[in-house]
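wait is this the right file?? whatever heres the structure
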């Protein structure tokens, strides 16, 4: 099918729903560990509590990719029904999760939230490949990254912004502060509205051969065989990208799960207080606990705010690449390699920052890696696979995102950082080393179509 080139605003409209998706992911990534700690979780238990996120991605994304490849509605298209269903469920979960009365409830809602976000997210990756000609693929994925950067920065700052408006960071023991509850409610609203914007401003191409499409759709019991067949016949470039993704996502899972305890302790010197350490029958001890708890919540706001910097720098990274890739070719391999190495340096620098303000620079470097992770692997992959299977291939590719996170969650990250020392800040050093390894793994990519694409050659 000859696909026409789309204008910037057409690509913007089809990608705008990612703003809401990233609000969900940024609130989850920046503040779920804080919620877990507030509800009494031990530091070493936090990665395991996060296992919901990668497990749901492993199960949901290939299924949604497979189903969306076989969906067509003259009114709603192929991918948009999944955007909408995921948005409704995600918004409900985002609103409820900070109101969790107990740790197990919060962990359960994380399962629901992450599964719902994945229902919306996977088809967005496939939509770029569906809608755009090869010459605009890098442009499309980078535009998504630009919107993701905006969402990451705003959502990561939401609890701090809400707190600045006078909504309290203080709360009784085991209760999430009102500032976090309001921030998650705003996130739920933005999630739903941004997805609706894309659903109603974007059209989709129908299947190229409708008769063949209907025949494929009528086949029974093909899901598992098709998934296994596609895994077995995975292109070599996809396997090499998978190795890069493994180390990249191990690093970012480490950040999402342990940055809050690591930085509140090491940089802000305000670890979460343990109620059992205070004699709550004494008024002065109770007051000391409240002060320590409020200090932890405020420094957690600041950790989220500084983490938001990586969304801002990834946005700047994406903006530069958006303008550049709309006119000229790039070497995707070397762009990705350099970005990941800079991100690794950013993580390692967190151990050495002399004051909290320096975290802005650390997370700026991390943002270069994040911006590249969200665009370059998908641009390289989309040039190496059958376009008719784009949804299921993108879903299978997600395995290389979730498997390292599962390994990290079930003890990998705790084991790795304790090889360096007992302090939780060592987890950020592990994240940095992992990103640098991922960067050098790009040297394995040799497929010329994956490495570079010249718009002038079309």
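ok assuming it is, sequence goes like this
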């Amino acid at each position: 099918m000859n696909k026409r080139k789309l204008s910037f605003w057409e690509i913007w409209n089809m990608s705008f729903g990612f703003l809401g998706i990233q609000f969900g992911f940024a609130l989850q990534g920046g503040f779920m560990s804080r919620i877990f700690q507030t509800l009494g979780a031990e530091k070493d238990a936090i990665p395991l509590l996060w296992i919901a996120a990668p497990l749901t991605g492993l199960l949901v994304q290939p299924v949604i990719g497979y189903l969306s490849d076989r969906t067509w509605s003259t009114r709603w298209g192929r991918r948009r029904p999944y955007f909408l269903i995921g948005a409704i469920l995600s918004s409900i979960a985002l609103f409820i999760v900070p109101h969790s009365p107990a740790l197990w409830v919060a962990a359960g809602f994380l399962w629901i939230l992450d599964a719902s976000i994945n229902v919306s997210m996977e088809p967005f990756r496939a939509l770029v490949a569906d809608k755009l000609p090869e010459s605009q693929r890098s442009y499309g994925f980078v535009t998504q990254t630009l919107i993701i950067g905006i969402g990451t920065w705003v959502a990561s700052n939401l609890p701090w912004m809400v707190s600045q408006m006078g909504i309290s960071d203080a709360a009784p023991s085991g209760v999430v502060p009102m500032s976090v509850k309001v921030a998650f409610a705003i996130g739920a609203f933005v999630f739903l509205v941004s997805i609706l914007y894309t659903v109603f401003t974007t059209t989709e191409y129908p299947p190229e051969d409708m008769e063949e499409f209907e025949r494929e759709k009528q086949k029974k019991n093909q899901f598992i065989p098709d998934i296994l067949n596609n895994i077995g016949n995975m292109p070599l470039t996809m396997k090499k990208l998978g190795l890069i993704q493994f180390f990249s996502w191990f690093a970012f899972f480490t950040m999402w799960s342990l940055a809050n305890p690591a930085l509140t302790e090491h940089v802000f010197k305000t670890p979460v207080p343990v109620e059992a350490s205070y004699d709550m029958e004494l008024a002065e001890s109770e007051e000391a606990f409240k002060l320590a708890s409020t200090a932890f919540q405020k420094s957690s706001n600041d950790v989220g705010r500084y983490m938001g910097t990586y969304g801002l720098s990834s946005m700047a990274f994406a903006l530069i690449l958006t303008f550049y890739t709309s006119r000229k070719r790039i070497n995707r391999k070397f762009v990705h390699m350099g970005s990941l190495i800079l991100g690794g340096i950013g993580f390692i620098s967190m151990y050495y920052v002399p004051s909290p303000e320096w975290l802005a620079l650390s997370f700026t470097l991390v943002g270069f890696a994040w911006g590249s992770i969200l665009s370059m692997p998908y641009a390289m992959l989309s040039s190496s696979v059958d376009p008719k299977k784009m949804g299921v291939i993108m879903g299978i590719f997600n395995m290389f995102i979730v498997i390292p996170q599962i390994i990290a969650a079930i003890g990998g990250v705790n084991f790795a950082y304790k090889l360096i020392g007992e302090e939780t800040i060592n987890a950020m050093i592990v994240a940095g080393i992992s990103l640098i390894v991922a960067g050098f793994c790009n040297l394995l990519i040799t497929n010329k179509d994956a490495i570079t694409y010249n718009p002038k050659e079309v």
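The two ends are 14 Å apart (CA to CA). so i think its the right one actually
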